[in-house]
Amino acid sequence: MSEKSKKAEMLGLIEKLNEAAKAYYQGSEEIMSNFEYDELYDELIKLETETGITMAGSPTQKVGYEVISSLPKEAHDHPMLSLDKTKDREALAGWLGNHKGLLSWKLDGLTVVLHYRDGKLAKALTRGNGIIGEVITGNAKTFINLPLSIPYKKNLTLRGEAIITYEDFRKINESLPEDEEHYKNPRNLCSGSVRQLNSEITAKRRVRFIAFGLVSMDDVDAEKKFKYRSQEMEWLDNQGFETVERKSVIGDEVVAAVDSFEHKIENNPYPSDGLVLVLDDIEYGKSLGRTAKFPRDAMAFKWQDQIAETTLREVLWSASRTGLINPIAIFDTVDLEGTEVSRASLHNVSIMKSLKVGVGDRIRVYKANMIIPQVSENLTMSDTVEVPKECPVCGTKTELRDDAGVITLHCPNPSCPAKSIKRFTLLTGRNALDIEGVSEATLERFAEEGFIRESADLFKIGRYKDEITSMEGFGEKSFDNMMKSIEKARNTTAHRLLYAIGIPGIGAATAKLIADACDENWEKIMSMSEEDLKEIEGVGPVLARGFVDFFKDPARAAEVTNLRKELHLEEGSTVKDDYFVGLTFVITGSLEGYENRDELKGIIERAGGKVAGSVSSKTSYLINNDVSSTSGKNKKAKELGVPIVDEATVSKWIHEKKISK
Hints:
single chain, alpha+beta, D-amino Acid Aminotransferase, Chain A, domain 1, CATH 2.40.50.140, seven-stranded antiparallel sheet, globular
């Protein structure tokens, strides 16, 4: 196994072991036996010994979190200069000439300098002003892919970028409470996370470190050891660091290489604001010296902003779930970076006012970092757009707030529908319309942009393809996958729709009871009276009254009608049997022959059985493909004498429509 493969294996083991420990200590269902845990733990120790690398987060390390009162400041051993930059690909190629260079991403996070002593991480500093940085050693020890110890046992200094991936950024935003404002972008979140006074907070943000340069090392013959930057980077790879993606080029290959990186932007997992080209020959690079501002052995490439002139047609005011109301410029469609763009955020009242926008103005627009549409300039500056005095969603009188000189507009109404993003989240949930890949954070972004105002709008989201694929963290592939999920969700059942519309008190189980009583016929469901509903076992007078009142509300009824038009319901498809009547099942572990647990649950319920979430004395069977597992549910079943059966056994009963011993 290569050193690279060993490192990948270590990272996989760390993730598995930490997940297992979390499940065990937090009292949730165990996901592996103690024997399996010990076996994997021993394998991790073996790999750490073989490689000399110990990663941050490894369960073999007991590193406590550090809390400090302020970040100390310290001078860098080697000043960190900025890079000269260009937006011209041919100029970049000309700068390199016939020399060999390394072209890599210019990462958009927070630059960090690491110092290792005797093979251990001794100190970490932020870039600061290039001369003096902030000490963040405790926080760096929580970076999820950073080695705390390495094979090289002398002094080592290197540089890299602390980043948060788009995927982790979305997950962090999704985990926030409904009334808490979301983070704007991965770069700002990363910067704030790395500079925390409490390293436990940093640990929760899943910060990663990507090395992009070796600064110094103790070996007296280091200059002989590494003649090329590419050798340095390969050596850092072998020390356990994740290094920046790079490509070796000479002058006439530069333009094609830049094009290649450009095509990767859409699916790049972390933020980047350009490229860096550095001379591969270390000695030659040093011989060029430096200017007062820049070293002469490297050049930054910034994407050339494609600017288009167009006419502003409208300023749309978009309310979010936090109450913030942001202005959005709607303009005649222009082509930018290969996509059609017709809208761009104006961010807040202050920025909108500084641009002095008015309907009919000639404006210039571009895509920041080739991703995010922005208005760069207003050529007419008529300054005729007024800030709305009422919320565009609920009509409540708006409030202007001054936050350190930035003026923002807010809706103070706690019941404003724009703040009810949870209804869209419910709609897409597994027990509702089951739309995969549409997170709460994504739904919030769509609502803020004005793409979705009611449930049916989600099924018309395709008309905003160009705008969505231009969003940060979204691309063609993400959009196509989302559309496939949405199209798949059009085919559903009446009981899923009933649960999805969010009638107070009507959960998934109750929705199924009501739909079954109506043979999954949607028209019958909507026309049910309180008396009809109360005849269904499990539906009381309060639920029945709330159900009827829901459909009496004209606005709600209209929204449900619009949503129904977008769906194809499998009416009357419920098959009722009785071979599981009187039996209660609990399902645990992974399934092989069913798409998910809900599918098997539905089959059991249609056969008259019940499915519970935990094992009790009332449980008839525990379904678990790992019958010999030592998980909490298996232990409980054995204690209570509840039979444990595998999926194949249950499938046989379903096929034969009877319990066979």
